[in-house]
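note to self — DONT lose this again. spent like an hour looking for the file last time. sequence + predicted structure for the chain T wanted, 232 res
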Amino acid sequence: MALLEVIALDAEDARAAEEGGADRLEVVADMAADGLTPDPDLVAEVRAVTSLPIRVMLRANAGFRTTTPELDRLRRAAELHREAGADGFVLGFLDPVGGIDNGALGKLAPALEPLPWTFHRALDHAADPVAAWRTVRDMAGGPDTVLTAGSPRGVDAGADVLVRRAAEGPRSAGLLMAGGGLRRRHVAMLAAAGITAFHVGSAVRPDGSWDAPVDARLVREWRALVVAAAGP
């Protein structure tokens, strides 16, 4: 089944995304830093205007490493966002040598249960992306979604990597959500490889600007494209 996830920065974005036919929201703050943890009040405002599932970013800085004090703050943030109406979370960390930081994930995991979560594009910035993908893919109690472009440079550079990962089998294909510089021309090729989940942010805003709100018409066009390629 096709899934279109849209980044929402506020309630207006959420309302437009639902009107356009989005299936899920990723709620974040500060896209200048590629998405940080939003205020719980914002999540509550989004929850008040939409029935769509909401996944909230848990990320305290613009990089992909974290610290014990940050993890403490993120654990508390997860509790507050759950109370505000979050249905799931988005997170992922790298250790000092660029591998998946299982220790950080383990410390944060209890605050997430039993809600589902997405491992975000930290994967694309790993020192050994092949090993990192295997770690995330095979993680016990791990994510139900892996947001990835296949490359730190975006889907244009990483599309072939996504196709190879999807070719591993239905479980791998089902984990993958293509996003990060995703363009309309990518969808048919990725869907043909078995990827059915797609993630957009600036692509559903006029002129691709983060300063512009989500446009329901653009979301509707993306939803039609995704359904046509990946199935209803």
